[in-house]
Amino acid sequence: MIYQKFKKFVEAEKLFSPRSRLLVAVSGGQDSVALVHLLVELKKKDWPQLQIALAHFNHELRKSADEDELFVRNLAEELGLKLFTGRANVKEFAERKHLNLEEAARLKRYEFLRKAASKFEADYILTAHTMTDQAETVLMKVFRGTGLEGLQGIRLKAENIVRPLLCLERQELEDYLRENHFGFRQDETNEDERFFRNKIRLKLIPFLQKEFDPAITAHLAEAALIAQGENEALSQTVEKIWPRVTRGGSSHLELNLGKLEKMPPGLARRLVRKYLKAAFGLESPTFHQTQAVLTLQDGQKFSWGRSQVLVREAGWLRKVEKTKRQKTFSLSWDGQSPLRLSSGLEFVARFISVKKLPPARRLSGLEFDDAKRCYLDASKVTLPLEVRNRRPGDKYQPLGLRGEKKIKESLRERKIPQVERDVLPVFLSAGKIVWVPGLPISEEFKVTRSTDKILLIEKQTSAN
Question: Is 343 part of a structural domain of the chain?
Answer without folding.
Answer: yes
